[in-house]
């Protein structure tokens, strides 16, 4: 990670209230280019509110934020051209096929060869076989992957994922995690929100915990783990986690075109 270049996202002193409810009370953090940054917080902590501010959908009351070098308040158009946002609720049109969904977005973005763009993304997200089927027939994981694929059209350097795996089964979550890791490997900066500790643990280069309006901790996983003293253990047999058992039984890793009805 290059610490000399400007951060992809810089958040300084952001405040936001809804009437009497002060949700964000001065939020500060930086996200390095090409990294995965997880914003962790309970229900109602203000994660979506912050993502909406950074993606120019909502104005903050105080503070500044720059995304890809552009001020969210001063240059919202430039910010929007630099980002994509995958919201908490999937934006897929169920009546259209997976491929048609992708072609539609490529056309809306006035890109050349929308069909070729769609086919490339279907292949990249292991949806080629399912591409001709209505998205309404997709499993939750496939739908999420399609949703993320749609948000990548036009190659934005920064992507926001608001709770990308909420409601997915463990196997589908791992598929989405794989997708997110591949994005970062290609140099895309990812800011994701999650309520799941293991998701942050699996994915993030840095983790920030949003609690009662401010970032109460921000660090790498190793740094966060050092906050707690190691437990002294005499002898403990390593038990597999429930997730490991589940994934062994259902055969994880196979998960590609795992259509429900194939
Ligand atoms: N437009 C709005 N008007 C009034 N209150 C709002 C509005 N948007 C959010 N809030 C309130 O702000 C607080 C933070 O909401 P937000 O959606 O940002 O939380 P979150 O961290 O994304 O939660 P979740 O994990 O449930 O998605 C909540 O108490 C919510 O009710
Ligand atoms: Mg939310």
Automatic annotation (TrEMBL):
The keyword Transport is assigned to this record: yes
ABC transporter domain: residues covered: 9-237
Keyword ATP-binding: yes
Localization terms from the record: Cell membrane
Keywords for the protein's UniProt record, in alphabetical order: Antibiotic resistance, ATP-binding, Nucleotide-binding, Transport
Gene3D superfamilies documented for this protein: P-loop containing nucleotide triphosphate hydrolases (3.40.50.300)
Bilayer topology annotation: Peripheral membrane protein
Annotated InterPro entries: AAA+_ATPase, ABC_transporter-like_ATP-bd, ABC_transporter-like_CS, ABC_transporter_ATP-binding, P-loop_NTPase
Main localisation: membrane
Recorded GO MF terms: ATP binding
Entry similarity comment: Belongs to the ABC transporter superfamily.
Protein name (record): ABC transporter ATP-binding protein
Native source species: Agromyces lapidis
